[in-house]
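Hello,

Our lab assistant flagged a job as stuck in the queue for most of the afternoon. It eventually completed. Since we weren't sure the result was trustworthy after the delay, we are filing this so someone can double-check. Below is the sequence as submitted and the structure that was eventually returned. Let us know if re-running is recommended.
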Amino acid sequence: MIKDDPDAPTFSMEDLERYSTQFEERNDEEGARTFEVDADDEDQRLDAWIANAARLSRTQVQDLLAEGHIHYLGPRRLPRLKPSLKVSAGDTFRLERPPVELLDVAAENLPLDIVYEDEDLLVINKARGMVVHPAAGINRGTLVNALLYHVRDLSGIAGVARPGIVHRLDKDTSGLMVVAKNDNAHSALTRQFAGRVVKKVYFALVHGNPGASSIIDMPIGRHPMDRKRMAVIYSGRPAVTEFLRTEVFPEYSLLQVRIRTGRTHQIRVHMAWMGHPVAGDPVYCRRDPLGLNGQFLHAGSLEFTHPRTGDMLSLEQPLPTELATPLEQLRAGLTVGDPTASTSPLQILDGWREAASGAL
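-- returned structure --
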């Protein structure tokens, strides 16, 4: 297994209590929350400061700002609130809870593999091919549709189309996901993901041999020519992926992968950028000789702190049959190559010329 980074932050119930008490907070009768900046927090960005104070993600705060649910109460005169605004001591903000919207998503009795469940959360083993939440043109057959059938109450803090969703997996990525049943659990889990203290390990089969281990620290953003794809670009957001090779086959390698950040398609983009795309990837690899019909990527291990009890939950899930079977077939015909070699199937990488030249 990938060894823990000794310099990585830890997360405990004391952290939860600190997050709850380090800010001056008041609740009014309407359920709004008021926060005041103290001297130690001067010059922080508004979105980052409120995210810490309210135990929300910065993305959630930015959405609340855009929708007019955060108000400035003084003492300065500010024309408008922007996420990049630098706060000053004494600044007071009022955060209103958005009105509850009726969810126009049907509950569906779809198969749902629940690995763990209690009053605050559940962990599910998402199947390959299942979309996590409704989107344009997709409002049936998603994980959210299934959750609405199996769970009476879900956290609504993530928005009307994503009840309970704390993080997501791509459609053809299988494995473990945690879902929040209430807003307190959702906020606490979101902070753990944002603080990079949730431990997730993926299993990925990639083309070629990328070496025994590596840490990829390259920014990821929207592809400059295809907005539906992501790419390694200098103007992107920081993204860090580490991997450990566990098996070598004549044309493939099996990796254990941990991501320190959570960018869209992060593992798939980083491995493709290296010239070792994930096997079967329909977006970042041009061919699928194993007939996988989707990327060989599985979230096999998940570890986090329970938001109520403070206990550490550590869960594992084996590969699904549609991935385990081709892997066993590779093992049956195993011819181990030179473990020190680093072959690179750049000829099968979509856009490999740009990636190799550094143009992206």
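-- support follow-up --
The delay was a queue issue, not a problem with the job. The result is valid. The chain is about 20% helix and 25% strand. The longest strand covers residues 199-207.
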